[in-house]
Amino acid sequence: MIMLKHYSRLLIILFLASSCASKKEKFEDYVFKTRSEEVKYQTAYDKALKLWNIPYTEEDIKTSFGTAHVVIAGPKNGKDLVLLHGMDASSTMWYPNIKALSKNHRIYAIDFIMEPNKSNLTAKPLSSDDIIVYYNEIFNHYKLKKFDIIGASRGGWIATLLAIQKPNSIDKIVLLSPAQTFKFIDKVGKTSSALMLKLFPSEKKFAKTLNTFSTHPENISRIYQRQFYLANKYAKSNSSMLKMTPFSNKELESIQNPVLVLIGDKDVINSEESLERANKYLVNSKTKTIKDAGHFLTIDQPMVVNDAVINFLEKK
After folding, report:
1. What residue segments make up the domains of the chain, in order of their start?
2. How far out from the chain centre does Cα 63 lie?
3. What is the dotted CATH code of the domain comprising 2-314?
4. Could you tell me which of 216, 209, 108 has the C-alpha nearest to residue 155?
5. Which of 28, 91, 281, 316 is deepest in the core (most CB within 10 A)?
6. Which pLDDT tens digit goes with each residue over 39-58?
């Protein structure tokens, strides 16, 4: 009950902040306040994307809601693999994992359209139904069939949302500490640092947030840190998490796909209860706790995560 009160307070604060911002914003400037700030952020994005250190291409796809930015890598004859990043992290977040993931897979890393990245929202904010349409338009554009999907944090919630839709073209699913998917945020008090960073950005609050979400913040590239910080400094308050609630037992049971769920043992978003619910209601699931890892487990323990994910995806 105490946790729910904290969570409700968090949502109220975020809702009020986003409401104040929405009175001033225009839909064409949904994420950034000024063109100058957008340019500074995208310059940092371009530098961070080079951390992939593999050949890639970038494409902009027209959707019903604006332009979707997609980063493509890996062999053309590899099995298709969609990557959905965490909140404010953008597709550049996969830099510790992309070399392993792209070895035998054709990668489609998609920027979420309501966050700071290179996608561009020109419509009103998306509902859950709109989010489904947005991603399916991209899947249809690339003619993706029987593809695998990896979602981190908010991306894990979106991957689950897509998987409960019937029919769909998804094969295997990997959920990396999925936010608000199996339960509400585990340690709401500790995650308040991220909220304060969003509302009152500063380098000090940013460092505190990294320490909260990562067991090894020293491993995070300074180039990527710069981009991630600007996402919080320049972007307007992100209210879309208000629409994210844990999925029902029935919804989870409807997912027949093979699913791998990984969380860090020091995660502030999930706990063993998340894995227990995954094991109970996902009929074809495998779960694992990654030691010495926080919510940013792909950065905290990249080799362990990469091995677990690749073994799962390539197992016949």
Report:
1. 2-314
2. 20
3. 3.40.50.1820
4. 108
5. 91
6. 999 999 999 999 999 999 99
